[in-house]
Write a sequence for this structure.
C-alpha cells in the first residue's frame, strides 16, 4: 500500500475523509485488489482492538487497592463522514464493518465482504448486512470466484471464506465454537480458547478440532485439505474416526479412498524437460546397413522420436560420416563421438574432427570398451601399451590435446566406457569431465544392479564428483539368443516397450544427465539358413525401418515431458500415496506452465527369461492426495496408448491403477 493510500485508509477508519478524498479512495479500491485487501486487514485490526477494549471494560481492572471496578464500555458515535465513506467503499464493491452495536456479542459478525453474497436461515434468504450477527444454522454462500466474506468473533477469532464457498455457523459443544464448511477455501486465525472449549471445523469428510491456531481448509466434493501455519490441529476422518495431528507447517488431506487423514510431505521436483533431454540413441552411421538409409529412414525416424542427442564414432575419419553428423546438427540433434585408436583415431585426429564438426558435436568420449577383445582378436593398443596403461595414456593425451586448442578447449570429454565395471578401479581415475558407463541390464529389470554394482564401481573411472553418462544400454529383442560380446538374454518386443521408458526414468532418479539407448535400428537381418544373431536385434527400429513397440513408447514419453524454454525453478509439491506396494516407484516433474507430472510405475519384471514369455503384472491400486489445488489430473500410459486415457476433475484425493510401465499423472494448474 502506498503512503498516500495508507493515509486515506487511516483517515477513513478515523472518519475524517473529505468528499474529494472519498471519491479518490473509492476509485483506488475499484482498481486495486491488493489495496482493498490491505484496507480490510487494517479494519480487522481496528475491530480486534475495539473488541479487546470492550472485553477489558466488561471484566474490569484491579486497581492498586485490589478492588474490582466495572465500567461500561464507552459508546462512540460514528461521524457522518465515516458513514458516507462506508457508502463509498460499498460502491467500490468492498464492505467493511467499522464498529457499532451488535445484536449478540457471543455470535460472529460479518465484518467484510466482496462480491455477490447470500445468507440463508433455513430456506429463508436474509439481507446480507455488514455488522450483522450470524446465528447458528445460518449459511453464507459466495458465488464469485474472486469474492470473500470475513467473520469475526468477539474473542478476536477471524474466519475468511474465499472463492466459490458455502459455510454455516453451528452450535459448539460446551461453549465451544463450530463452523461447517460445505465447499470452498476457509482461512482462520483462532486465539487460544478457554479450557475445555474447542473450535471445530466440520466438512463432509472430516472434522478439525483446535484450541488456538492459524489454518486453512479447502473443501471439495470429495476431499478436505488442511494447512496449519501455527499451532496444532487434530483432523478426524468422519467415516472411520481415524485421526492425525497436524503441526505448524503441516498439510493433511482426507476424503474418498482414504481410511485416515494423509499427512503430505513436500517432495522436490525436477524440470520435465531436463528428463526429456537425457534421452539419446546410439547410431552406426559408418556401417553399410545405415549409410544408404540416412535420409530416407534414420533422420526422419530420429525427428519422429523427438531425441536431441545421438552417440556414434566408428567412422569419424570418413567425410561421409562427418557430413551426416553435420546434417543431424542442422536438425537440432547433436552428437557425442567416441575417439578410439582401434578406429585409427589419434588425439590429434580427434581435435581435427571436433573442429570440423563444429556445433554439431556436443561431447567427445574416450575409447569404446577397451577392456574387451575386438572381432579382429586384436586387443587395445596405444604406443605399444595395452590395457590399462595404454588406455590411460590415450585418455591423458586426448584431454590434453582438446584443452590445448582454443576451438575445442570447452568441449566436454568423457572417460572410456568399459564392458563392465569390474576393472574400473584398475584403470581409473582418468582425466575427464564425466564418467561414461555401458550399463546393460542383461535382460533383467531397468535398475538391475545399478546401485550395488554399476554406479559405485564405475565411478572409480573418474575423479571424485564427476557426473555420470550412460553411452550404451538396452535390451535386444531376440529371446533365447546371447550376444557374444555382451552375453545377455533377450526380451520380447512387448516387454521392451514396458522397460525402455522405465530405463530413462530410473537414470533420472539417479541424476544421470545423458543416457544413450543401444541402438536406434537393428544392425542387420538374420540370413536364411543361418543361426540368428542377437546383435541384429538391439534397435528401437527393425532393420527395415519399421518401429518396434518400444520406439513408440519412448516417443510418447518424450512428447509428454518435452518443455523447451529458459531455466525454471522447479520447487516442491506436497503429496502422499496410500496403498502403494513396495515395488512402486515415482518421479515428480514440473513444466514451465505450472503443470506437475507425477510418473508412477511398478518396478516389476515384465518378462520371464527362463520361460521366455511375457508376464501379466496386475496394476496396483493407489490413492493419491495432493496438497495444492489443481484444475484437473490427466492420466497417460505412454507405453501402450497415444493420448490421454482419463481426466479427473478437481483432483484433491483420487485413486489410480499403476501398471508395470509408466503412468503419467499430469496435474493441471488452476487458472
Amino acid at each position: 500500500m502506498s503512503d498516500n493510500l495508507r493515509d486515506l485508509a487511516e483517515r477513513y477508519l478515523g472518519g475524517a475523509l473529505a468528499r474529494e478524498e472519498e471519491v479518490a479512495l473509492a476509485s483506488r479500491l475499484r482498481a486495486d485488489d491488493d489495496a482493498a485487501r490491505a484496507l480490510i486487514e487494517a479494519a480487522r485490526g481496528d475491530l480486534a482492538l475495539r473488541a479487546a477494549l470492550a472485553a477489558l471494560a466488561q471484566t474490569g481492572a484491579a486497581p492498586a487497592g485490589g478492588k474490582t471496578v466495572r465500567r461500561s464500555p464507552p459508546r462512540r458515535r460514528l461521524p457522518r463522514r465515516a458513514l458516507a465513506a462506508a457508502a463509498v467503499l460499498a460502491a467500490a464493491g468492498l464492505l467493511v464493518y467499522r464498529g457499532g452495536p451488535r445484536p449478540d456479542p457471543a455470535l460472529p459478525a460479518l465484518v467484510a465482504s466482496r462480491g455477490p453474497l447470500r445468507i440463508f436461515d433455513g430456506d429463508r434468504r436474509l439481507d446480507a448486512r455488514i455488522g450483522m450477527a450470524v446465528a447458528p444454522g445460518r449459511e453464507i454462500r459466495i458465488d464469485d470466484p474472486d469474492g470473500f466474506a470475513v467473520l469475526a468473533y468477539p474473542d478476536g477469532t477471524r474466519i475468511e471464506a474465499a472463492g466459490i464457498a458455502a459455510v454455516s455457523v453451528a452450535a459448539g459443544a460446551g461453549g465451544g465454537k463450530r463452523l461447517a464448511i460445505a465447499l470452498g477455501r476457509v482461512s482462520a486465525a483462532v486465539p487460544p480458547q478457554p479450557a475445555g472449549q474447542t473450535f471445530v471445523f466440520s466438512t463432509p469428510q472430516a472434522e478439525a478440532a483446535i484450541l488456538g491456531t492459524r489454518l486453512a481448509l479447502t473443501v471439495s466434493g470429495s476431499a478436505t485439505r488442511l494447512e496449519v501455519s501455527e499451532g496444532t490441529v487434530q483432523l478426524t476422518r468422519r467415516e472411520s474416526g481415524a485421526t492425525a495431528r497436524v503441526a505448524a507447517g503441516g498439510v493433511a488431506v482426507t476424503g474418498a479412498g482414504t481410511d485416515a487423514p494423509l499427512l503430505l510431505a513436500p517432495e522436490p521436483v525436477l524440470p520435465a524437460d531436463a528428463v526429456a533431454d537425457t534421452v539419446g540413441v546410439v547410431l552406426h552411421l559408418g556401417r553399410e546397413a545405415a549409410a544408404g538409409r540416412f535420409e530416407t529412414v534414420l533422420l526422419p525416424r530420429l525427428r519422429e522420436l523427438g531425441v536431441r542427442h545421438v552417440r556414434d564414432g566408428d567412422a569419424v575419419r570418413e567425410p561421409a560420416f562427418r557430413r551426416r553428423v553435420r546434417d543431424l546438427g542442422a536438425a537440432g540433434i547433436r552428437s557425442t563421438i567416441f575417439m578410439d585408436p582401434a578406429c585409427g583415431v589419434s588425439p590429434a585426429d580427434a581435435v581435427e574432427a571436433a573442429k570440423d564438426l563444429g556445433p554439431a558435436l556436443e561431447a567427445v568420449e574416450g575409447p569404446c570398451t577397451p577392456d574387451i577383445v575386438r572381432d579382429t582378436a586384436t586387443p587395445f593398443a596405444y604406443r605399444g601399451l595395452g590395457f590399462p596403461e595404454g588406455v590411460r595414456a590415450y585418455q591423458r593425451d586426448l584431454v590434453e590435446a582438446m584443452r590445448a586448442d582454443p576451438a575445442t578447449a570447452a568441449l566436454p570429454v568423457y572417460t572410456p566406457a568399459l564392458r563392465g565395471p569390474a576393472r574400473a578401479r584398475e584403470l581409473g581415475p582418468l582425466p575427464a569431465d564425466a564418467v561414461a558407463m555401458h550399463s546393460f541390464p542383461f535382460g533383467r529389470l531397468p535398475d538391475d544392479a545399478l546401485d550395488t554394482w554399476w554406479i559405485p564401481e564405475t565411478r572409480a573411472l573418474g575423479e571424485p564428483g564427476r557426473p555420470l553418462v550412460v553411452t550404451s544400454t538396452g535390451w535386444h529383442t531376440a529371446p533365447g539368443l546371447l550376444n557374444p560380446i555382451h552375453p545377455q538374454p533377450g526380451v520380447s518386443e512387448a516387454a521392451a516397450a514396458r522397460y525402455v521408458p522405465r530405463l530413462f526414468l530410473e537414470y533420472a532418479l539417479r541424476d544421470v544427465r545423458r543416457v544413450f539407448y543401444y541402438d536406434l535400428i537393428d544392425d542387420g537381418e538374420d540370413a536364411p539358413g543361418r543361426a540368428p544373431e542377437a546383435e541384429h536385434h538391439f534397435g528401437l527400429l527393425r532393420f527395415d525401418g519399421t518401429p518396434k513397440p518400444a520406439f513408440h513408447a519412448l516417443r510418447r514419453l518424450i512428447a509428454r515431458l518435452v518443455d523447451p524454454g529458459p531455466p525454471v525453478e522447479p520447487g516442491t509439491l506436497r503429496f502422499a500415496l496410500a496403498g502403494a506396494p513396495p515395488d512402486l516407484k515415482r518421479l515428480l516433474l514440473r513444466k514451465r506452465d505450472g503443470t506437475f507430472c507425477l510418473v508412477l510405475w511398478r518396478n516389476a519384471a515384465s518378462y520371464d527369461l527362463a520361460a521366455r514369455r511375457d508376464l501379466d503384472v496386475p496394476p496396483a491400486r493407489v490413492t493419491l492426495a495432493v496438497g495444492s489445488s489443481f484444475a484437473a489430473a490427466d492420466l497417460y500410459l505412454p507405453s501402450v496408448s497415444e493420448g490421454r486415457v482419463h481426466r479427473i476433475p478437481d483432483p484433491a484425493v483420487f485413486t489410480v491403477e499403476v501398471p508395470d510401465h509408466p503412468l503419467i499423472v499430469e496435474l493441471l494448474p488452476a487458472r
